[in-house]
Predict the structure of GTPase Der.
Amino acid sequence: MNTSENLPVVVIAGRPNVGKSTLFNRLVGRRQALVSDMPGVTRDRKEGEAMLRGRRVRLIDTAGLEEAAPDTLFGRMRASSESAVAQADLVLFCIDARAGITPADAHFAAWLRRQDRPVLLLANKAEGQAGTDAALEAYSLGLGTPLALSAEHGEGIADLMGEIADRLPDAPRAQAPHSEDRPEGPLRLAIVGRPNAGKSTLLNRLLGEERMITGPEPGLTRDAISVVLDDPGGPIQIVDTAGMRKRARVEQSLERMSVSASIEALKMAEVVVLTLDATLGVHEQDLQIARLIEREGRACVLALNKWDAVEDRAKTRQAIADRIETSLAQMRGIPVVTFSAMTGAGVKHLLPAVRRAHEVWNARVTTGELNRWFEGALERHQPPLVDGRRLKLRYMTQAKSRPPTFIIFGTRAEMLPDSYKRYLVNGLRETFHLPGTPIRIQLRGTK
Ligand code: GDP
Ligand code: GDP
């Protein structure tokens, strides 16, 4: 009678020395695992039970398993984690925020993305303000929003427990196949951008012109507020992180904090208004924020503010559009709205654009339409040869919306090169009118 057989399985994975065992100890609450300063000290696989927000889980620490297999570091990580990951209900993938992302982390992340298991990305050793850069960089692993924490100092552990509990198979917020099609509730909007782009001015303008259903209230995270506007098209909830930006002014570099504030805000949003000071053109930091929006799978509207102060409007618009098209191919067709938050001119076009972006993001294409198009697309351009053999792509279906996500099935489909995926994404975007939204393609090989 071993009831632990039925417990959800949470696996801690990552390269040696990132703090897996320390985290294991934290979560299990007893010193079951041996912690060492030397990378890769041989240890047995550790298993324990943890109680997280009232849920019992079986926790597996893969630390030390690396020694069992020869080969490269990545090969060892993979070999050690393979069986554990296969049975995982959730994988906690740890990186060392102090060390930054290493090639082994990146390789392992790429492998993990293909395993089709839920993953929570943890940036450990981030006590104090340490590791902000690595946490940002960790977005590039494509495993969602990294959670910064310190296993050793116990920072962020309570949040982590909540995040784990929310992701367990039969968590109250169930992951039903279509749970993402959430029809109820106001559209959730975030206004992000670099300092001085005019976000506060814009928010005040919107608050001044729209009828508010609820006034500023403490929002979902520390220092975030949210207001609900009674827009004619339906209620819109705006999440603002003004407080976080203010704190930034005293505590750390404005630019960097502005990006982390944006991350917080866009996590809570469905549509993100990326606000630019149009007199300054597009900055690298704007692109960085845009990429985060894409990575998080949010709909985006580009707002060119301070239009009153722009001299050659046609030229400015074109220059910005060109820069966005070339630098952000993943968001092709992103809607652009120009206005002056200060004078109010043009601001009325913003919320309708937000609503259209939201619709595109929610779009669903029927399997029939999709496959009629897919056949033609395959004929126009055959999938390339991989290792001298042609990939046989059979059919396609939309797995979910928010953002639109498609699955392609076929023999060795998982080998499809990115260039061909981009060809399909561009075709989907044009054919089914999906401008400006991130589009995801997943590949499923069939035998
Ligand atoms: P593992 O090989 O991934 O299991 O890593 P360990 O848990 O053995 O930790 C490796 C080293 O990192 C040890 O020296 C730990 O004390 C240290 N460490 C773990 N967590 C943290 C943390 O949150 N902050 C800092 N600064 N060090 C940590
Ligand atoms: P935030 O840091 O993004 O919240 O930016 P603010 O809303 O605080 O605005 C930064 C500065 O830009 C302030 O001096 C604003 O008065 C100015 N500003 C904001 N919107 C406009 C606009 O539409 N036109 C002009 N000319 N200035 C603006």
About this structure: The chain has 13 helices and 18 strands. The first strand starts at residue 9 and ends at 13. Residues 187-362 form a domain with the Rossmann fold fold (CATH 3.40.50.300).
